[in-house]
Amino acid sequence: MKLNRIPFKRVNQRKAYRALLFVFCVAILVQLLIVAPLSIDDQKGLDEEPASSTTLSQNEKSKIGSDIGEGADLDSKAHSNGVPPELAGDQKMKSVHMLETRDGEKDWELWSDVARSNPDSGQVELQGVNSLFHGNKGVTYSVKGRKGLIEVPKKDLKVSGNVVTKTSSGYVFLTDDMSYFSKNRVLQTDSLVRVLGPKSKGIHALKLTGKGLRTMLNDSKVEVLKDVRAEKILEKGQKAIIRSDRARFDGNSVTASFLGEVILDIDDMRITGPKADFLYDSTKDTLKSVVFSGGAKVSDPTKWATSKEVKVDFEEDKYVFSGNPRVVQNSDELHGEKIIFHDGGKRIQVIGAKAKMNMNRLKEEN
């Protein structure tokens, strides 16, 4: 009996040595500082509740769940033994905190309920993920999801399963997955994206959908890559509907830009152009104005106008046209240095006016 136990013990020793060697390699290759208590446990040890769980609070879940819609579930699926089957095995870690640095500065941090190292593939599988990525000028991006995967040699990370990404400026991005590519410091996904703008009076006043998302951490820009559709509730209760090819969000502020064949509909007024910048009042989280640049056209059932730039001022309810502006109404044309629509277009002011009238219509009226 003793002879039979010796080989078995040596096998276990080799397995333990192999696991410890891999953890050591992870620390060197990925430069991960594991500051929370780390253990390579058997199945019994994982029945305990993790000391630093990444599970969202009930308050957070109810808020995000209401934004996503019915059927949303941000909890990791529970199992009778506390660990999902895909993480079964001997090489497990729990309550893990990892820190990746770059040139002495924080690159990203990660907290995980459960992790499993795989020496053969050079990967670390995660369950219950809460990560924080550091951009320029103190901008941060929080990424939470059910699962994660670290590619040790590349220092890349993928988070999947009801992923919630939030910028420090207040934008929330809901996706199926999110990947971080360490070489270029890029957060990216090709999946469908839902965007919730900063809250105004307790609600997300901007709601946007699109496909694909890319965040360049070095310049703190987030871009929805195509098929952008958005709704914005204005201060006076009006609904603005926006369509564009792409949308870009500034991580340093609450500014949003829509790019490529932009269409903005407000009541019976339509504005089109190649670019529109949404400018917010940072003190009240309300939309102050929209600026169309690169050539814009505004139309309603009775008139249309064009100029190089159009500014829609929501606080004063006016449209300001500058850069060779002109208005056409009933075959009459108005030109000027600046044209202003007041009261949503009901009253027109022309500065430096030049008029071109339809003489036939004037004769008929006389």
Beta-strand percent range: over 45%
Taking all Cα atoms into account, the compactness measure Rg is: 28 Å
According to DSSP, the number of beta strands is 25
Mean pLDDT: 76
Distance between the termini: 120 Å
Poorly predicted regions are: 1-9, 23-90
| SS-based class | mainly beta
Describe the biggest sheet?
23 strands, antiparallel
Shape: elongated
Number of helices: 3
Helix content: 10-25%
Order of helices and strands: HHEEEEEEEEEEEEEEEEEEEEEEEEEH
Describe the structure.
The chain has 366 residues and is mainly β. The chain has a domain at 1-168. The protein is 13% helix and 53% strand. It is built from three helices and 25 strands. The protein has helices at residues 2-29, 58-68, 359-365, and strands spanning 92-102, 105-118, 123-134, 140-151, 156-167, 172-181, 186-196, 199-200, 203-204, 206-216, 221-233, 239-244, 246-250, 256-266, 269-281, 286-293, 296-299, 303-307, 309-313, 318-322, 326-329, 332-335, 338-342, 347-351, 354-356. The chain has a 23-stranded antiparallel β-sheet that branches. Strands 8-9 form a two-stranded antiparallel sheet. A hairpin with a 4-residue loop joins strand 23 (338-342) and strand 24 (347-351). Mean pLDDT is 76; it is low at 1-9 and 23-90.
Secondary-structure map with pairings?
Elements: H1 2-29, H2 58-68, E1 92-102, E2 105-118, E3 123-134, E4 140-151, E5 156-167, E6 172-181, E7 186-196, E8 199-200, E9 203-204, E10 206-216, E11 221-233, E12 239-244, E13 246-250, E14 256-266, E15 269-281, E16 286-293, E17 296-299, E18 303-307, E19 309-313, E20 318-322, E21 326-329, E22 332-335, E23 338-342, E24 347-351, E25 354-356, H3 359-365
Antiparallel strand pairs: 1-2, 2-3, 3-4, 4-5, 5-6, 6-7, 7-10, 8-9, 10-11, 11-12, 11-13, 12-14, 13-14, 14-15, 15-16, 15-17, 16-19, 17-18, 18-21, 19-20, 20-23, 21-22, 22-25, 23-24
